[in-house]
Structure formats: C-alpha cells, structure tokens
Design goal:
This protein is mainly alpha-helical. The protein has a domain at about 70-185: Four Helix Bundle (Hemerythrin (Met), subunit A), CATH 1.20.120. The chain contains seven helices and no strands. α4 (about 90-115) packs antiparallel against α6 and α6 runs antiparallel to α7.
Length: about 190
C-alpha cells in the first residue's frame, strides 16, 4: 500500500517538479528575455523569405524571359552591326527586332502576373524600375520602326542599353526570389 501511495504521490508531483524546472531561471520564453523579440523578428524574416521564393512555374517563366531578353539583345546587335558596316536596317531586320522586343514584353507580363501578394509587395521597388525600363524599350523600339531610311545607331544603342538594364533588374529579382541564374543564359555574345 505504501508503495502504491508513493507512486501516486510521485506521479502527481512529477509534472509539477518538471514544470518548476522549466520556468526556473533559464529565461527562455519569459517576458524578461530580450532575445524573445529577436526570435519573433527572425521568424517573420524567415516567413517573408519563404513567401518571396519562386514557384517552379515562376522559375520556368523567368528562364523563358531570360531567353527572350538574350534573343532581343542579339537582334539589336545584328541591326547595330548592319548599320556600323554602312548598311541600312531593312524591314526584315527591324521586324525581327520588333518581334524580339514583343516577346520580351509578353514573357515579362506572364512572369510578373504570376507574383503572389507578398512577392508584389516585396519586389515593388524593382518592379517600378522595370516598368520605367519597359517604357524606354517600347519608346526606342517605336523609334527604330519609324526610321527605316537611316541607320538609327543612336536608337539601337539606347534600345540595347534599356534591354541590358532590364536584364539587370530581372537578375536582381531572380536573386530575391531564389531563382538560380545560369551565367551562360545571360551571355549576350552568343
């Protein structure tokens, strides 16, 4: 009987003793612990970082956008080389360039439209820069389409600069979204 009573007392006091040890002077989880707020901030930062990560579909859309940007810059270089050699950019070259720019804009729309609310919020400064760069690209592309009688090297150079800037902005977005960049896919000399 004494033995049973001892076990009952031990079982009843055991959780209390463990609870007392847990709330001892360890400070973990108490209001007096200044690190408790930092842990909460770290958790918020972690949750934000996870929310910013690209989905596999977004990563695929980014790769398509990168391919479109590389193709557009290659087309710009072809028009520039033609103008530098004394030739005039003819309709097929200008049309190919226009089509390449349209592909960039279309791929970019698909990529940006797929952003979650958290991604839109976190990437807002970069998407504003992209929007301005898009305007520059469209302006220079239209200028080139209207200048079929002259080499228009200035417009070609401005378009190439705007495409390069867009490529830089998208690389920054990729880093923030955890999309792995393949350096060979960003090479515009191919």
């Amino acid at each position: 009987m004494k033995r049973v009573l001892g076990i009952v007392v031990l079982l009843l006091l055991g959780p209390c003793a463990l609870l007392a040890q847990h709330h001892g002077n360890h400070g973990a989880g108490t209001a007096n612990n200044p690190a408790a707020g930092a842990t909460s901030d770290d958790l918020s930062d972690f949750k934000l970082a996870v929310a910013m990560q690209a989905t596999p579909e977004q990563a695929a859309q980014f790769r398509a956008l990168t391919s479109s940007l590389v193709a557009a810059r290659k087309s710009v270089r072809e028009v520039s080389d033609l103008a530098a050699s004394g030739g005039k950019p003819d309709f097929p070259h200008l049309q190919a360039l226009s089509d390449a720019v349209d592909d960039v804009m279309s791929s970019e729309q698909k990529f940006l439209a797929g952003f979650s609310r958290e991604q839109k919020s976190g990437l807002k400064p970069l998407t504003k820069k992209i929007s301005k760069t898009d305007s520059d690209i469209l302006k220079e592309s239209k200028t080139l389409q209207q200048l079929t009688n002259s080499p228009a090297n200035g417009a070609v150079d401005k378009l190439d600069q705007a495409l390069a800037e867009l490529q830089t902005h998208h690389s920054e977005i990729a880093k923030q979204m955890g999309i792995q960049l393949d350096s060979s896919s960003l090479d515009t000399k191919n």
